[in-house]
Sequence to fold (149 residues):
Amino acid sequence: MKKHISWAAIALGLLLAACSAPQGAQEGKAADRHGPDSTALAEEGRHAGFNPDIVSNKKMPQAMSLRDYLARVPGVVVEGYNVSIRGAGAPLFIIDGIQVGRSLRDAENMININDVDYVEVVKSPTELAMYGRLGGNGVIRIFTKRPEQ
Fold:
């Protein structure tokens, strides 16, 4: 009986590990620097002409800080350096695929506002699922401009 339980536990652990691996890593591909499908979502929003959860530098040419970007997204409340999405706690900030924590101040100190290409606020449970418990309060993804090639 104990052998059956331990094999079941191992199988369950492997299944959970496979489900929590980043998309692309499961298929043996390197993950995109913007995360899975986020670039496609951003491009889709740009081509459609309107996506309220994505604010590009084209919409905010004179943005002075990340707060200017975030204030344009419905459901996001910015009070000083405190940010909340739909009344939840502090969201997770991600800059070009790197988690930088839950502090707006730290995120602003890590990038030059003139280098921001667009800011995406992730609110839907299906998109937040890939961040697990870290994304429970929402995720703010900041994408910088790519160098000209």
Notes: The chain has two domains: 1-29, 32-144. Helices lie at 2-20, 38-48, 66-70, 104-110, 125-128. Residues 94 and 109 are 13 Å apart (CA to CA).
